[in-house]
Structure formats: structure tokens, C-alpha cells
Amino acid sequence: MATPLATRGCLLASRGPPYHAAASSSSSSWPPSSILQLGSRPSRRLHSSSPQVDAAAAPGKSGEYQPSFADDLLLAFFRSKMVEEVGWDSEKPGYAGLMDVANRLMVKGKSALETEQAAVRVLQSLFPPLLLVLYKALLAPIGNGQLAAMMLARATALSCQWLMGTCSVNSVTLPDGKSWSSGVFVEKCKYLEESKCLGICINTCKLPTQTFFKDHMGVDLYMEPNFEDYSCQFNFGVPPPPLDIDKALKEPCLDICTNARRRRELGKNSSPDELGCPQV
């Protein structure tokens, strides 16, 4: 959850109150730039160009993104909003604690839809309501949505690496054949890798982030997570396909999922559908 929710997805500003200050009030109006939605659906596969860096990353010696102090504040603020929605917090510090809260968000919902709706509320709480209204009313309509989509792509790449890892802006091809530099390529999504769960990716990040941007910011978004290498392609300005043909919702459980390993051991003769993630 770019994400987010994305920021899920998942888009935040580069400055915000520390965790304890944010957690003390559910009405905090500190505005993120953007975070972690469903319109007409394309029927053909979208093609993205190879990533072209448009936003500076901060890779460490290992090639992984190294969070800054500002990133720690963003994580704390996002986590405080997750805690408010879930009504529970983990004793673990940092990102590990955030993943505990995300897992609790998953099990709290009585259905996948209920979990998605809760994640959308988390994303909404990161913004002052007036900011979302103005963005949707004033910016989203400009140039058939091109300006708003490109702005969100750059904001995501600049402000959400603490959640997702190293990412960069790239070009995407729209259903009408036009090409906009409104894509974001995440090299290896930390949220997906740390959660070890396809269901958490789908229900607390991909679907709620798509819904949030469409319904509350007026911008279509189609997210394409790759469950083999944990990369993810954000396509701002592109409507997602219907749920029944979205290939991400038909993927089997991740190999790193401990529950999936157990199910595979118990159901060696089962069909692929029977071994799919029960959370999706």
C-alpha cells in the first residue's frame, strides 16, 4: 500500500508529524503529496516502456533504497493511520510493525471487499478532504487527465520509496495508443516481499489504491504486480480491467508464503484453482 495504500498503492509528503503526535488525533490534516478505482476497462494488454529514471532514488551499497529521516516520519504517519483504522498496534518498531498492522487489517475484515474499503479509508485519512476535492475538480480534468496522471506518477516515485523500495517514472501506452510519462516502475516491492502474501498485496494495496485514485482524485490507475520478481508497474491514466479478467487476481499463492507451502504439501494432486490464495 503504496501504498500502500498507494500509499498503496501510496503517496505522502516529505514532511510530517512523528508517529506519536499523529496517532494522538484521528483528525490530523497533514497533507501528503499523494499515496497509495475503477472506470472503463481496456480489453487488451498494456505495454510499458523500460523504466526511465525521472525521480532520484537513494540506493544503498546493496542496491536497495535506504530510508532517510524524512522517510521514517512518513512511515510513522502512515502507520498511525493504519492503527486508527485497525484499532490495534504492534509492539515491533519500524517496518516490521507496519506489516503486523497490515496483517491485522487483513484478518479484521469479514470479506476481501471489507478489507479493501478499510484500506481506502486509510488512504483518505492521509489527506485533508478539501485537497482531494480540489484535485479531482480542478486538476484531473486538464488535458483529459494527462497533467494529473503525470503529477501523481512523479509524486509517487519521489515520496513512496520508503514503502515500496527503489522506483522510477516511465512511459505507459494508453488504450487509445497515446504514450504518457505517467507510469512508475517499482523494481522490487518491499511491501509485497515483507508481507509474503498475495492477498495482502491485492486487498490492502492494489485494489484499494486503484479505487482511491479513481474515486477520490479522479485519476484512473492500473497496477500490475509481478509475483515472480516482486516488481510492480503503476499505470496512471489507465483504467484497470474488470476484476474477473484481472490477471493479478488469478495468480497462485506466493512461493514464500508459509501457508501456501503447507497447502501444496497437503494437496499435491489438487488443481491450480484449489491452490490459489484464499484471501483473494
UniProtKB/TrEMBL annotation:
InterPro entries: D27-like, D27-like_C. Residues 162-243 form the Beta-carotene isomerase D27-like C-terminal domain. Residues 21-34 have a biased composition (Low complexity). Residues 13-64 are annotated as: Disordered. Pfam families: D27-like_C. This is Beta-carotene isomerase D27-like C-terminal domain-containing protein. The lineage of its organism: Eukaryota, Viridiplantae, Streptophyta, Embryophyta, Tracheophyta.
